[in-house]
Specification:
Radius of gyration: 51 Å
Number of helices: 70
Structural class: mainly alpha
């Protein structure tokens, strides 16, 4: 060193190059060349001082020796930073080569001086440099990464080492050994740079140290690396690269294939180290699973970073697929078997806390990453294998089941298969372990809700509730099951015990004692839990797996449900009535106190008040309890007035805010395809938050078990404010997610995110009523006001609801109208049809936009689905609406040809900012695939369905003008549906079939009580459709002539249609059925009057003669139409005039028109007399119409029978006015009808009595007929007082006729007798009366009692029998509660009392022969009126009759 120092002094003042900088030899050479003058001047001065250098060359050589003697080999390896300067590629290579050769020469010189090989020296010096670089950090043992300066120096060193390796002067093995001799082991990043730079691989480096030390160092460094990863810095990418590269090495070495192990025998230590590191890091994570709340946030984030090791994409092609599978299987096994300390009893008790949403996020994230490497089937198989071969950690196993069920769409069926397999093995070998495993897995999967897996109650019923269950094979199997269930009892939660009790396993009768023993044990356990089976709620959900709700909480839910049912039906729910009788303790102790919770009563009675009042009226609330309730309510009102300034405390909004936060987090996942795998987990968390908001998550499983339909009041859907806010939150989130996702990807590339979201929503059964009600508000009530984004979102939501339709019960739609039939129960698909109505211009536009959006979304979202799958997903009602709307609104869609196209074109036209729905609809319509759907029968809009939709339209508010609507109707009927085959919903070209469909549809439409029909008469018929029907009837030529002798060969198609509608509807006593039939017949009459008049009459050929045929019309009148006439014996004017006009028109086809008319009217006398009675009633209005028509058609005198009708009217008028003789007709009841009607049409002036007296001899039958007509009016005045018939006037007229008959001694009681002995006399009259008037003849009969004389009892032997028969009829009418007039037309009881008094007074005065005809009535009288029956029985005996020795005054 001294030597060197003396030499250095000779060059004092020269700029000596530093050790770090350019390569030393190069520096020296450049320095000597750069400063030759300076060296010379120095030499000159040196000579003056007796210099030892002889020349400049000697001086230069001395300088080189000086610098070479002072060089530091460690610094030399670092001096490569500036070796490359700009100057062209050739210059760079030259400089690098010269630098490497210089370093090599220096190394060789140093090595020879030290007596060691250059490669050894280079390796040792490189280790020394690495140690110096790593020690430059303030705390190297704690920091796994280098700082920028360290990284720069290390880069220089590694570049030099690469050069040494290239020149074969660097020993790898020694380098690895020396690395592990360092005082402080290197920083992890430095090792990574060595590995990444191909200097020394991590695997080669790990071969040198002792295994435990290497494992400790790696685990320590990796943990530090993970902790640094979450710190905000610029090293995030570097950290990820370090971890992924190391993970690849760990897998390549720790999970080698057999063939690799054979080739690399020398690397036995490395697999152990790699395997141990992975194992210890996994343990590090799993240790924190149970302590998640205790661990710091940074620690948990570090562990989540380590879980990136389980990301499949990290390894790509770097690791053999089998090695990757082996690693993931091993990890899953280790997780499932980690620390298996929990017992089965612990699992039974705690598994509720291990659902997906409640499980540690570290564990669920790990599972989800592991499942990526397997299919769902492989995951289940691995789980099954672990369960069969290892002792397991039940918490990890069951949380694994939950994660599988939530995150794997096909897991549900695979889990069912696994459960079935476990049950089979359990009962085959009577293995308790397999059985408990099955129960735990079934319960765990059920915890995730019905959208994920069937409820536990359903699984239990399906597995053990029928004869085919595994336990039914033998008594031994049965005992095995119940022993198992009994062993579970001490650990069971109440909900599971309730399921076992309410849905017990199927047990043969002979073994029922086994079941009863278990039920006793289970009830004892419930009692220990303070849960009585008797305290079960009225609407308790047994599918719930939550802890048992206390009776107070369940009672509150029952009250809420009962109020909902009462609000929709206005009737006390059956379950409440049954509970008040059969479950009295629960009803009085829990339900009523929950219902009668004191509150400040609203001024306007609400549903709760109305329900309470209904229960009170039904004596279902004890008076003392009700009194206490009302007093408490008054007290609360007084207190509220005093405390008015105080503000009510509201519910904590924390759960709602949590739900909002999770929904916002979901949106960030949906817009990023790379994060789709995280969506199922996030939706499970949202489901858990939603359950917290709703407040009673136990109802989540109700959808799968409850068969009760969801009740929705479509006219005015009511929602609880809290539920509406939640539903709005969910719908808003869905729409925003859809729009956001569609901004980046079309629906078919958005993954299952939205489907899972809707499925999760449907899993919350208690939210469905509010959801469907809110959709009703939005679609039905507010549809036209929605903007495009709303429509698009709601349409997509409806499609996904259809996808999840299995989770949605039927919908009981309350149409908001008082109706005789129950509310319609609809499927969810039919429910949309109910909400999407097309009546006005605005609703037409909205429906087309909505249906187009829904269909387009489905076609794009499920574009890869098969034709059958599309058919299953698409609601038929939406497609049918499109088939109706598009041709109606777009001329281009009428008969359009489909075109090949892509569905995303339709979607792009919808999702663009400027929506053109008509263009989008046509684009959809032209799609070949959509046209293929239209060929399916389920999607075909039939002629009848088209008519129903068209009949709903308000013509005055239609989007089409009258002419446009007429053109559309012509196209639809004549060009589309009439020629179309019936298989496609058409008419096969059959005009008669088309008429039948139109008539039936008009009638069906009028009978339907749809919303929006307020203010529209049920009897009104769409004029446009009726016009088309008229055209078709005329074109059909319903007056077609039949072949000779075939008068009855063909029935009139029109009346055949009407009869068919009534044939299957039996006349029931039910009020609803009666009202339906009455309305139906009124509609029949309305349609008949609307058709051409000649359609009522057909013509046929008989020989060479054309005949008029009215048989079908006669039959229809006699059987049906007469029953809707308010007068009882006459049809309304419209149908009467229509028939006569049709008769005259039809007679044009006859050779002798007058003769044809005469024949029909003559036939009326015996076949349809009510037509003649109707003519008599309406003749003043009918005569001028018929006379003018006859004159117009024929110009000849009236037909004989028409003239006769006119003469009878004239005779009746003259008879009453001037007293001329009244001619009698044959039959006499025709002239009686005209006389009666004329009397009724004239103002009463007291001349009727005189007129009756002026009737000549032989007028008895006419008088009886007059009595019949007057009695019909008497009944009409009772049941239809608004028809203009006065009861008192009719009664007086009837009494006048009866008195006249009595004076003449005419027999008339047979008119009332059921067993008509002389059918010729009175059968025609009775056949003309309506059924209701006939049934009410007893009312008219007993209204005449003041005029019954004593002589009548002795003169008329049949009188008593008739009177008794009518009395029993009167009693039956009262008992059945039908037909009798209401109290405002007279009290029915008073009428019955009058009749009874009359009979009790009359029976003793009747002659013995009067009792000969009453024997068939005795039993009925004894049944309905025992006292009257006893009286009859007493006086009907001959001995008793003989004891009457004096006559008593009757009145």
């Amino acid at each position: 060193m001294a030597d060197g120092a003396s030499q250095g002094s000779g060059c004092a003042g020269l700029p000596v190059p530093k050790a770090m900088g350019l390569p030393l030899r190069s520096c020296l050479e450049q320095w000597v060349r750069k400063y030759p003058v300076l060296l010379a001047s120095k030499a000159g001065r040196a000579r003056k001082r007796k210099s030892t250098f002889g020349s400049g060359a000697e001086l230069q050589e001395a300088a080189l020796r000086l610098l070479d003697h002072h060089q530091n080999l460690n610094d030399l390896l670092l001096e490569v930073e500036g070796s490359v300067k700009p100057g062209g590629q050739g210059g760079v290579k030259h400089q690098e080569a010269s630098s490497e050769s210089f370093i090599v020469s220096v190394l060789q010189e140093q090595a020879s001086r030290l007596g060691v090989p250059p490669a050894i020296l280079a390796a040792k010096n490189a280790v020394t440099n690495i140690e110096r670089i790593c020690q430059a950090s303030a705390s190297p043992s704690q920091v796994p990464l280098l700082d920028l300066e360290q990284r720069k120096r290390l880069s220089c060193l590694l570049q030099t080492v690469k050069g040494l390796l290239a020149n074969n002067v660097f020993c790898r093995s020694l380098f690895c050994q020396e690395m592990w001799k360092m005082k402080d082991l290197p920083v992890l990043e430095a090792v990574w740079h060595l590995h990444r730079g191909d200097i020394v691989g991590l695997g080669e480096l790990l071969e040198s140290p002792a295994a435990p030390a290497a494992v400790d160092w790696l685990c320590h460094g990796l943990r530090g690396l993970c902790e640094r990863a979450e710190e905000p810095s610029q090293d995030a990418e570097l950290t990820g690269n370090v971890l992924s590269d190391f993970a690849i090495v760990f897998l390549q070495n720790g999970f080698q294939q057999t063939s690799e192990l054979g080739r690399k025998v020398e690397f036995k230590k490395v697999p152990y180290i790699c395997h141990a590191v992975l194992q210890r890091m996994l343990t590090w994570v799993l240790d924190a699973v149970g302590k998640e709340k205790q661990e710091g946030v940074s620690t948990l984030q570090a562990m989540r970073f380590w879980l990136n090791v389980f990301t499949v994409s990290v390894y790509k092609s770097a690791v053999h697929p089998d090695s990757l599978q082996q690693f993931f299987r091993h990890t899953l096994t280790e997780v499932l078997t980690y620390n298996p300390l929990l017992k089965v009893s612990d699992a039974i008790h705690m598994q509720k806390e291990w659902s997906f949403a409640r499980t540690c996020s570290l564990l669920t994230t790990l599972y989800r990453k592991l499942f990526v490497a397997f299919s769902a089937k492989e995951s289940i198989c691995q789980l099954q294998q672990v369960l069969e071969t290892h002792e397991v950690n039940w918490q990890h196993v069951l949380s694994c089941v939950s994660t599988l069920a939530v995150c794997q769409a096909e897991a549900e069926q695979l889990l069912k298969d696994l459960l079935s397999h476990l049950l089979i093995k359990a009962f085959e070998n009577y293995d308790m372990e397999n059985l408990i495993t099955a129960f735990l897995i079934a319960r765990q999967a059920a915890l995730e809700g019905p959208a994920v897996f069937m409820p536990y109650s359903e699984w239990f019923k399906a597995s053990f509730g029928n004869t085919g269950g595994h336990h039914g094979s033998s008594k031994k199997a049965l005992v095995f099951l119940f022993e198992f269930l009994s062993e579970l009892v001490p650990f069971e939660a109440a909900p599971y015990l309730k399921v076992h009790i309410m849905y017990p396993p199927f047990v043969p009768t002979k073994h029922r004692s086994i079941l009863l023993e278990y039920i006793t044990l289970a009830k004892t356990r419930l009692a220990d839990l303070k849960v009585a089976i008797e305290d079960m709620g009225l609407y308790e959900d047994l599918s719930s797996t939550d802890e048992s709700v206390q009776p107070q909480g369940q009672a509150l839910r029952d009250v809420e449900k009962a109020l909902q049912i009462f609000e929709n039906t206005r009737k006390i729910p059956t379950s409440v009535i049954e509970a008040s009788i059969f479950r009295r303790p629960y009803y009085t102790s829990w339900f009523l106190p929950a219902l009668l919770e004191p509150r400040v009563l609203p001024k306007t009675p609400d549903v709760r008040m109305a329900f309470i009042e209904s229960l009170k009226r039904a004596d279902k609330i004890p008076p003392n309890l009700y009194s206490t309730y009302t007093q408490a309510c008054r007290a609360m009102k007084e207190k509220a007035l005093q405390d008015e300034p105080k503000v009510e405390t509201s519910r904590s909004k924390e759960p709602v805010e949590q739900l909002k936060a999770e929904l916002a987090a979901l949106r960030t996942l949906i817009v990023d395809q790379a994060k789709y795998e995280d969506v199922p987990a996030q939706i499970a968390v949202i489901s858990d938050r939603l359950a917290s908001v709703l407040g009673h998550s136990s109802d989540e499983n109700e959808a799968a078990t409850s068969n009760s339909p969801i009740q929705v009041d479509i006219s005015a859907p009511r929602l609880e404010p809290c539920h509406q806010s939640v539903v709005d939150l969910l719908l808003t989130s869905f729409c925003q997610n859809l729009i956001a996702a569609s901004y980046f990807n079309p629906p078919d590339r958005q993954g299952p995110c939205l489907s899972l979201f809707v499925k999760m929503t449907c899993g919350h059964r208690n939210l469905l009523p509010a959801l469907l009600g809110r959709l009703c508000q939005l679609i039905y009530h507010q549809g036209p006001s929605l903007n495009d984004a709303h429509i698009l979102g709601l349409a997509a939501f409806v499609i996904h609801l259809s996808e999840s339709r299995a989770l949605i019960p039927e919908v009981e739609a309350n149409l908001g109208i008082s109706q005789p039939v129950p509310e319609k129960v609809l499927s969810v698909s039919e429910y949309w049809n109910c909400l999407l109505v097309c009546r006005t211009e605005e609703s037409f536009a909205f429906c087309m936009r909505f249906c187009t959006a829904a269909a387009s979304y489905l076609m794009c979202k499920f574009s890869s689905c098969s034709h059958e799958d599309l058919c299953a997903l698409l609601p038929p009602s939406l497609v049918k609406k499109l088939q109706y709307l598009l041709p109606r609104l777009c001329l281009e869609a009428r008969g359009i040809q489909c075109e090949e196209g892509k569905a995303d074109l339709t979607w792009s036209s919808l999702s663009c900012p400027s929506l053109n729905y008509r263009r989008a609809s046509l684009c959809l319509w032209k799609q070949a695939r959509f046209q293929e759907l239209l060929k399916e029968k389920a999607f075909q809009l039939s002629f009848r369905e088209w008519l129903l939709l068209e009949l709903q339209v308000y013509p005055e508010k239609d989007i089409l003008s009258a002419s446009e609507r007429q053109d559309f109707h012509y196209w639809a009927i004549y060009q589309w549906y009439l020629p179309a085959p019936s298989a496609a919903g058409g008419c096969d070209g059959d005009l008669e079939k088309a008429c039948g469909i139109i008539i039936n549809t008009i009638l069906d439409s009028s009978q339907r009580l749809d919303l929006g029909s307020y203010g529209r008469s049920k009897m009104s018929v769409n004029p446009d459709i009726l016009c088309k029907l008229q055209e078709m009837v005329v074109e059909l030529g319903c007056r077609r002539k039949l072949p000779s002798g075939c008068l009855d060969a063909r029935r009139h198609f029109l009346f055949e249609i009407l009869r068919e509608r009534l044939k299957d509807r039996k006349q029931s006593s039910a009020l609803g059925e009666q009202l339906w039939r009455q309305q139906e017949l009124l509609l029949h009459r309305r349609i008949l009057v609307g058709l051409p008049a000649s359609a009522l009459v057909t013509t046929c050929r008989k020989g060479r003669k054309t005949m008029l045929d009215c048989e079908d019309f006669f039959h229809f009148v006699n059987s049906e139409l007469k029953n809707i006439c308010s007068r009882g014996y006459a049809l309304s004017y419209d149908i009467t005039a229509h028939f006569f006009r049709g008769l005259l028109n039809a007679s044009l086809d006859c050779e002798e028109s007058a003769e044809g008319v005469n024949d029909v009217l003559t036939a009326c006398q015996s076949k349809c007399p009510i037509l003649l009675f109707s003519a008599a009633l309406w003749w003043p209005r009918l005569e001028p119409v018929l006379c003018s028509q006859w004159k117009r058609l024929f110009g000849t005198p009236l037909a004989e029978e028409l003239e006769r009708l006119r003469e009878w009217q004239s005779s009746a008028t003259s008879f009453l006015a001037s007293g001329v003789i009244f001619p009698l007709s044959d039959p006499p009841w025709i002239s009686a009808a005209f006389l009666h009607c004329t009397v009724q049409q004239q103002s009463p002036c007291g001349r009727e009595r005189n007129a009756l007296e002026r009737l000549g001899t032989g007028a008895e039958q006419l008088l009886v007929s007059l009595l019949f007509f007057s009695l019909m009016d008497l009944v009409s005045a009772k049941i239809a007082p608004k028809e203009g018939v006065d009861f008192q006037t009719s009664l007086e007229w009837s009494l006048e006729i009866l008195q006249c008959l009595e004076e003449r001694g005419t027999s008339w009681p047979l008119l009332f007798h059921s067993a008509e002995k002389d059918p010729v006399k009175y059968h025609v009259l009775r056949s003309a009366a309506s059924d209701r008037h006939t049934r009410l003849l007893p009312v008219a009969f007993y209204s005449l009692t003041p005029c019954f004389r004593q002589e009548l009892l002795t003169r008329e032997p049949t009188f008593l029998a008739a009177a008794l028969h009518l009395y029993t009829q009167l009693l039956r009418l009262f008992v059945e509660g039908k037909d009798l007039p209401q109290s405002d037309q007279g009290d029915p009881l008073e009428m019955i009392s009058t009749a009874r008094r009359f009979l009790l007074d009359a029976i003793p005065r009747c002659p013995a022969q009067s009792f000969g005809n009453i024997q068939p009535l005795l039993a009925t009288c004894e049944e309905l009126d025992p006292e009257l029956g006893a009286t009859l029985l007493h006086f009907s005996k001959p001995a008793a009759a003989m004891e009457l020795d004096e006559e008593l005054v009757l009145f």
